[in-house]
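Appendix B. One record, verbatim.
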Amino acid sequence: MKRASVVVLAVLAVVSVLELSAVATNNTILEHLTKPLLLPLLMVFVLVEVGWNADPSIKFLVIGQFFSLLGDVALMFDGDLWFGLGIFMFLITHIFYIIGFFKLGARAAMQDRRWVLFVYPAFWIIANAALWSGLGPLRIPIIIYSAFLVAMAMCSMSLGTLFGIGGTLFMISDLLIGETVAYGKFTGSGVLIMSTYIVGQALIAYCWTRRVKESDKPPTTLQPANS
């Protein structure tokens, strides 16, 4: 990993701690200062580590991160309009991530990890059944949104365990938001939502760049033994 990338991740770690502290203490001013910095820092990390043109999939990662930033900003405000806008921004994120995952080879990778084709759809059914009674008029929008959310996590897991942990944490974070919408906030819900979101997004970015860098390595050739 490049030294500049390590510096960016260190700054991200500091900002993340401040963000989580702000959420835990209901410090709205600090939260509004730190939350919009999370995804831009991850975007900088990606561009520093591999660059925009390193692989066709990188564009989908960075654009997806940009829409996540827009979603983060929208969800900082109260009201159904802002919530709907935020969810729509994250829906676009998931679509771009899914396309990017397929460019990284998710379709072929699923042949080796076919269990994801059963586990994640089953989880989608169970999660929506659990939230159903509390969602009211949001039931259909959440079903549609969560289908893309779970598909994103499924594709990430097909690409590797650490990659999949990142996608799954992102998925859990969003489903926790759905849980608070359906049944109300619980103790520590804000910190849990943001911590799983930050770690999930960071792991996705890290694994994505690592996979691109590994694909750029020239194939090793066997050298003839000295006679």
